[in-house]
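Recall that a protein's primary structure is simply its ordered list of amino acids. Everything else, from secondary elements to tertiary packing, is in principle encoded there. The following example makes that idea concrete.
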Amino acid sequence: MNIIKTDLKASLLEYFGFDSFKGEQEKVISNLLSNKNTFVIMPTGGGKSLCYQLPALMCEGTAIVVSPLIALMKNQVDAIRQVSDSDGIAHFLNSSLNKGEISKVKNDVSNGITKLLYVAPESLTKKENIEFLTNITISFFAIDEAHCISEWGHDFRPEYRRLKPIIKEIDDVPIIALTATATAKVQSDIQKNLGMTDATVFKASFNRSNLFYEVKAKKNVQKEIIRFIKPRIGKSGIIYCLSRKKVEEIAQLLQVNGISSLPYHAGLDPNTRAKHQDMFLMEEADVIVATIAFGMGIDKPDVRFVIHHDIPKSLESYYQETGRAGRDGGEGHCLAFYSYKDIEKLENFLHGKPIAEQEIGQQLLHEVAAYSETSINRRKFLLHYFGEEFDEFNGPGANMCDNSQNPKEKIEGKKYVQLALECVKSVQGKHKVKYFTHLLTGKKTGEITTYKGIDSPFFKKGAEEDEHFWHAVFRQIVVQGLIKKEVESYGTLSVTEKGDDYITSPHSFMLIKEHDFSDTDDVDIILNQKGGGGALDEKLFKMLKDLRKSIAVKKNIPPFVIFQDPSIEEMTMQYPINIEELQNITGVGTGKAQRYGLPFLDLIKKYVEENNIERIQDFVVKSIVNKSGKKVNIITNIDRKLPLEDIAKSQNKKIDELISEIENIVASGTKINIDYHLNNIIDEESQKEIYEYFMEDAETDNIKDAFDEFEGDYSEEELRLMKIKFMSEMAN
């Protein structure tokens, strides 16, 4: 490698305007400039890019940077072009370029103008590119996002496995591999696969002390997200979801609630994706809602929060995604919503894959579940996973997690720890955590039977506690280093030397009671939350029902026509005091709110003032549901008098599903006229009979009651359609 400039600090100032290096950047660059293979493990925001950008600018020839994403390459190229008066200083070579653009790139490289050439691994394998690169001067190869090489990494790319022979074929120059997340297993994989076991390894601390880690049960998630963001209006944030559909839904939800947000996922066309990314970077939108396709290489220093609507597939993914918060050293809140149901869903996605891949995937998911459910210091748990010890009492950022700020109860766990260690010791290195929790609680699973666990002296020996408890014990003794998980055998347990010492001389061990995440769901409509405690306000409920009855008597209509019971119940939990808030109640649309709302609002407002009730204002706006294109399509097609069967077919629904949609539309206050359909299936006299039942005899709007009343003369479908007609005409 021919070095044109040798003064590192002068070059740093000249090209980047900095007068000092960050962390171990200087040592890394010096190592690479000494023609040595270099391996850099540095957390997001630690300044990895500079470790290859500066030496590339200082050396003769072109540095080849292998990068996995087109968006990532574009950002890096745009950034490096700012340090030169020539755009040719950096280029990318990938499938997004046309022939003319490829020719321009190759000319700049051949003429010595280009110092950094970013290539996708797929582009590097093309014969014409290999031939081209063989005939130019290359300073070194940089493998960015190097964890993509490892099957144990969170973003494994098979094409990364082919890099070493191709690099060898092109030129024998030094390699610098860089990643933001690497466990010991991933680190070893990267070095072996790139043939750089001789590399000097630079591993920065993974502790981002300014980040606050929090995990919440996945319950009423949409409401929780709104409550979290509302006080942070104007601050930048990222919300990660696993599916494109959920991305669109959450982005729309935020917009409806007055939060500037945009969706980002692979289903959007490239121009829209690029536009949304730029709008977020330029602060034209506060929040980006995205799949994991977003964020790699996004250099936005002031992201103030990262929310995981869905738990990620690995702790590496979680760490990298949360690492996009607070890169300027300022506030960074990392909130994840957890439900074991999500882990099970992700496990189902592994079915059908090769056994080894399933084992790896499941082990990574178990680590995510353990992190989510643990009650110990989250920073300590996370750093332990990456092979770094952390002092949870005095370390930087020690108090920056939900578990530290709200510590759970502790119990003396000496006897449990000793029992767990002896149990593992009895079959050293053969089984995973789940086997031992089943063995100690006496659960006769297939694995217990196969390995004759029933005959073990430890079978049922810990049965006074449940599996959840024993999982907590094993998590805590792993983090404390008494047992270790053998990565090569997908997480089997073995007792460490420290664990052996504990068995010989047991001492006090305070176990922390774990979180219980059994009460989770993904219900987005709020029916069970109230200002102070989340229960029905019985006193107000009775007052509202009395008011409803008096209005019904005056108007000579059944009470349920005004507001149905679920809507009244929700009013007692949300305490709406104006028309806009009333419209947010389930089953209350604009029409109903305007027509019947004022006396209810007056009563609630007076009740809130007299009882000093603290209201939650930021609950989810349900009108988002009625804004969907499918709802508008249903209303439009009914106005056009299309057969309901055809409308259902066009929306890929069964007829009873379509009827449910129409019921929801009517319940929210929209008038719907389905007379054209009813007149084809029910004669005039029968319609009159059913209508009169709902008007005069029905005590509730329950279809089963109506079915029983008519003793089966009419089908449930006919009764539901007539109720739609009745409610549309009388209530809206």
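The longest strand covers residues 211-217. The domain at 211-405 is CATH 3.40.50.300 (Rossmann fold).
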